[in-house]
Amino acid sequence: MKKYIILQLVSLVLAATMFSGCEKFLDRKPLTATLDDLSQGGLETQALGLYGSIRNSASSPWIGDGFQSIPWIGINGFRSDDQEIVSDPGAAGWHATYDNFQYTKDDWAAGLYWDKHYLLIGNCNTILQTADSLQLNDAPSQINVAEAKFFRALSYFDMVRNFGPIPKIDFRVYNATDANIPKSPEAEVLALIESDLQYGASHLPLSWPDKFAGRLTSGAAQTLLAKVYMWQSKWAPALATCENVMNSGQYQLVTPYWAIWKTDHELCRESIFEIQADQKPGDGGYYWSWFGTAQGVRGSDADGWNLGWGWNTPTASLVNAYESGDPRKAATILFSGQSDDPANGGYGKTVPPYTNALYWNKKAYTSDAERTASGDIHGSYFYNCRLLRYSDVVLMAAEAANELNRGADADTYLEMVRSRARNGNSAVLPHVAFSTQAAMRDAIKHERRVEFGMEFERFWDLVRWGDANSVLGSLGYQPKNHYYPIPSSALSANPALVQNPDYP
After folding, report:
1. 304: which DSSP letter?
2. Is there a smaller number of Cβ atoms within 10 Å at the N or the C end of the chain?
3. Are 211 and 5 in contact (CB under 8 A)?
4. Cross-strand partners of 214
C-alpha cells in the first residue's frame, strides 16, 4: 500500500534522531537524512519526524496519544450526541466525564492531551527556530518549515477549541521555565494558526510522488485553514479557500461511500490528510496506532468478535438521523445481532446479539484477514485516522456560500455530496433545491451530521453553530462546557496559568 512508503521513510530518519521533546534538540545542528531518494531540505529529518510524532507507537514516544488515541477520541467524540462510550463497564468514569459533561480538572486524559499537544508544538518551534537561525531559505527547506507550521497550527487549533485562551508559545524553549507564560487571547492564537496555514498553503506542493504518499500538501493546509475560518464565521475567506481546493483537480468524492473506510482506499483521491499507521509481525513496532483498536467491537474470544475496546459507539440519536435508504447509515453503523451487510462494506459476518452496545463504529471495522496478517487478531493497529477529507471541503463551501447569499452555489455543492452518497440510486436522497437561506442552512447541518457520522466533527459543529445548548442540554451540557477546565497538571507546571472561568 502507498502508506507504507512514507512510514518507512519516517522510520529511517528517526533512526538518526528521536523526537521525545524539544530539549532533545538543544544546541544541536539539524541532522540530515541520507536516503538517496529524498530531495531534502536541511530540516528533512526533523520534518519527517513530525509525522511519527502524531501517531502513538515506538517511534513517537507516545506523543500521538494526544492526537488519535483514547484522549483525543474522548474529548473530540464522546461529547457529541452521536458518539458515546457504553460498551466497557470499566469506563463509567469516561462516560460521566465526556458523555454527561461532568468535567474534572484532574482528568489524566485531558492532562495527557494538553502535554502532548505542547510537546509537538515544541518540536515544531525547534524546527522553525533552526531554519531561521541558519537562514535556510531554499525551496526544500521552505517545505520543511511549512510542514512544521502545519503541525503547529493543527495542535493549536485542537487546543484553542478545547481550552479557549491558552499560552501562545511560538518560540523555541531552551529551559522548562521559558514556557511558564500566561494565556494569550483566543483571537491571538487563532491569528497565529491562520498565519501558519497561509504559509503552508503557499509553500507546500500541490501533490507528491508516490514515494511520499500521504505527505502534507497545499490542499491539506488550505483545508485546515478553511476549518479555522469556519470556526470564526469568516465566510468569504472560507469559501474562497474551499473553492481553491476544489478547483485544484487533486481530489474527488470516491464511490461507493463505504469504500473510503477500507484499508485499500487509504490515501485515496478523497483523502487530504491521514495519520498513517501499520503493524506487521517483526516490524519493530514503529508504526502502530491505537485509533482502530480503541474503536473495534468489544466482543469475546469465544465468538471471534474480540476486535478492540469499543470505545466509540454510535448513539440511537445518530442511527435515527439518517433519511430512509441513505447508504451512509449501513456504511457507518454495525448493528448487534445483524449482518455486517457485505453490500455496504461488510465481510459476510453476523454481529452477535450484544447488549453492552447495540451499535458499533463500522468506519473502524476491518477484516479477519487483515488482523491476522498484522499479527494480532484482536485489534486494528494498522488502521489510518482520516483527519481531513474532501467531502468536508465541499460541505464547508456549501455552508459558506449559503451564508454569503450564494444559494445556487450552496445547492450545487450540497448536491455533489448527496449524489455521491446515493451512488446512482435515484429512489433515495432526493435533491434538496435551494428555497431559503434558513432551509438550506438546516439541510447542510443535517448533511454534515450524516456525512461525518462517527468522524469527530459533530461536537465542534454544534458549538460553532450555537446549537450545543439546545441539542446537548438534556445530556448535561451547559454553556461553560464548550471549554474544558485547564488540567491540574498544567496549572502545577506553569504558575502563570489561571483556571478557566466557571471551574473554581
Report:
1. T
2. C
3. yes
4. none
Would you tell me how many other CB atoms lie within 10 Å of the CB of residue 337?
A: 11
Q: CA nearest 6: which of 51, 64, 65? A: 51
In terms of domains, do 134 and 20 share one? yes
Are 212 and 312 members of one domain? no
Structural domain for 96, as ranges? 3-80+91-216+483-493
Q: Is the N-terminal amide bond of 256 cis, ω within 30° of 0?
A: yes
Reading the block at residue 260, the C-alpha cell is 473510503
Element holding 415 (H helix, E strand): helix 407-422
Q: Is 24 helix (H, G, I), strand (E, B) or coil?
A: helix
Instruction: Answer for the pair 382, 279: CB distance below 8 angstroms, yes or no.
Output: yes
In whole angstroms, what is the distance from residue 253 CA to residue 393 CA? Answer: 11
Q: Report the C-alpha gap between 61 and 21 in whole angstroms.
A: 9
Measured CA to CA, the distance from residue 219 to residue 224 in angstroms comes to 9
State if pTM tops 0.70. Answer: yes
Residue type, 271: S
Residues 39 and 148 in one domain: yes
Whichever domain contains 34, its CATH number is: 1.25.40.390
448-453: average pLDDT: 98
Domain boundary among 357, 383, 409: 383
Q: Are 390 and 253 in contact (CB under 8 A)?
A: yes
Does the residue 456 lie in any domain? no
Residue 385, beta-bridge partner list:
275
pLDDT at position 271: 98
Grid cell 499507521 in the structure block, residue: 277
Cell of 501: 472561568
Task: Examine residue 187 and state whether it is found in any structural domain, yes or no.
Answer: yes
pLDDT digits (tens, 9 = 90+) for 340-358: 999 999 999 999 999 999 9
